[in-house]
Amino acid sequence: MHLSAVKAFVAVATLGSTTDAAATLGFSQSAVSRQVADFERYVGTTLFARRHGGLRLNSAGTEVLPLATEILRLAQTMTITAAAEPRPRARSQCNS
Description:
Blueprint: H1 3-15, H2 18-25, H3 29-43, E1 48-51, E2 54-57, H4 59-84
Antiparallel strand pairs: 1-2
């Protein structure tokens, strides 16, 4: 599972359409649709009721959304924590 698929799911769930999610994420609508489909395959079930005019979370999607949101929050925390750690300086090599 790629984090981009989780981001796409959360964006579509929040905004209600792949078009709006694509504009927000900076991807094409088809790319967001593929990412959501990949995420649904990963979790093993559909997460949206697909209707004319948009998408609505089904009961499984409603259960998964807070978990997916937490995954994104933890990923951001991990990135911030890792970036705050001092990095070891490269050793200079003398070939004398």
